[in-house]
């Protein structure tokens, strides 16, 4: 079973873990988080992330990051390999989907997480009454 690591600008990672635990109270063993503070370098984030992955003891891991190209993602990309996949643009539907399918193989888990994130984005428009004046 792959582990999940969420790396994001502080305090987003911890806040998302709290949201995850609200819905999935037993998710703690599968989900580790790393809040990246402004003074942390990509190297420091990478080292902290490697330590969290080692501590979790999972053979494989899906790493979720907040923003592509930012420090959390850049550090996570250094972890990527055959047993670590990185997915950027984390949102709550992506995280919940990851937790729902954490027992699947890593490649399938990454695909399901990405689809959950994409399908969780909706533009909610206010219906326009054709009889009203602008």
Give a brief outline of the structure.
The protein is α/β, with parallel strands linked by helices. It contains five helices and four strands; from the N terminus they run βαβαβαβαα. Helix 1 packs across helix 4, helix 2 packs across helix 3 and helix 4 packs antiparallel against helix 5.
Helix content: 40-55%
Task: Note the run of SSEs as H and E.
Answer: EHEHEHEHH
Name the overall outline: globular
Radius of gyration: 17 Å
Return the average pLDDT rounded to an integer: 94
**Cα distance spanning the termini:** 55 Å
- Unreliable stretches (pLDDT < 50, length at least 5) are none
Across the major sheet, the strand order is 2-1-3-4
What summary fits the major beta sheet?
4 strands, parallel
Q: What can you tell me about this protein's structure?
A:
With 134 residues, the chain is of the alpha/beta class. Strands 2-1-3-4 form a four-stranded parallel β-sheet, sandwiched between helices. Helix 1 crosses helix 4, helix 2 crosses helix 3 and helix 4 packs antiparallel against helix 5. The protein is globular.
Mind sketching the topology for me?
Elements: E1 3-9, H1 12-23, E2 31-36, H2 42-56, E3 61-65, H3 71-77, E4 84-88, H4 92-100, H5 106-119
Parallel strand pairs: 1-2, 1-3, 3-4
List keywords for this structure.
globular, about 45% helix, alpha/beta, about 130 residues, 4-stranded parallel sheet
């Amino acid at each position: 079973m792959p582990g999940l690591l969420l790396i994001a600008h502080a305090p987003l990672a911890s806040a998302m873990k709290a949201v995850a635990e609200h819905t999935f109270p037993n998710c703690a063993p599968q989900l580790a988080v790393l809040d990246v503070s402004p003074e942390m370098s990509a190297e420091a984030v990478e080292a902290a992330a490697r330590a969290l992955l080692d501590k979790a003891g999972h053979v494989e891991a899906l790493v979720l990051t907040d923003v592509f190209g930012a420090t959390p993602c850049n550090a996570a990309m250094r972890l990527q390999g055959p047993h670590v996949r990185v997915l950027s643009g984390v949102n709550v539907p992506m995280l919940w989907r990851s937790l729902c399918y954490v027992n699947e193989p890593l490649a399938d888990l990454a695909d399901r997480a990405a689809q959950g994130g994409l399908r969780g984005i909706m533009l909610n428009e206010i219906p326009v009454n054709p009889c009203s004046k602008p």
